[in-house]
Amino acid sequence: MGVVNIQVAIRMAQDVGLDLVEISPSARPPVCKILDFGKYKYQLKKKAHTAKMKQVVVKLKEVKMRPATDEHDFQFKLDHIKRFLEEGNKAKVTVVFRGREMAYTVRGRDMMKRIMEALKEKAKVEQSPTMEGRNLIMVVAPM
Fold first, then answer.
1. What is the pLDDT of residues 89-120, one digit of tens each?
2. Within this chain, do residues 87 and 118 fall inside the same structural domain, yes or no?
3. CATH (domain of 31)
4. How far is C-alpha 127 from the chain's CA centre?
5. Does one domain contain both 133 and 64?
6. Does residue 1 sit within a domain?
7. Distance CA 130, CA 143 (A)
8. How many domains does the chain have?
9. Distance between CA 116 and CA 104 in Å, rounded?
10. Residue 28 binned pLDDT confidence (cut-offs 50, 70, 90)
């Protein structure tokens, strides 16, 4: 319709039995449409709902180990990490050192290398193994 006076636009909307809705208030002049406001709000709500449904939320799952973890327990934890990655989540692998175990951080690094080798086809290392206090932490994400 082009640029129209506000009173004329309101009268036009009332004649048709609809509402005058301001679409873009920051534009100069402001952009308005003549439409059913209830239907417009419903369509906006539906659009937001479908956008939220398509959204993928990636969670960070954590697996904790000790440097003296046995082979069976190690494989069990590795299976958990693989399952987390298959579900589309990231996995945080933590090796916790207690007391005198701090002298054997090499064992923890070896565990991390074994995990990286086992997961090289399924995951990429997002954060390489780093010491944070008494913990050795690594984050892996699915490919």
1. 999 999 999 999 989 899 999 999 999 999 98
2. yes
3. 3.10.20.80
4. 17
5. yes
6. no
7. 21
8. 2
9. 19
10. confident
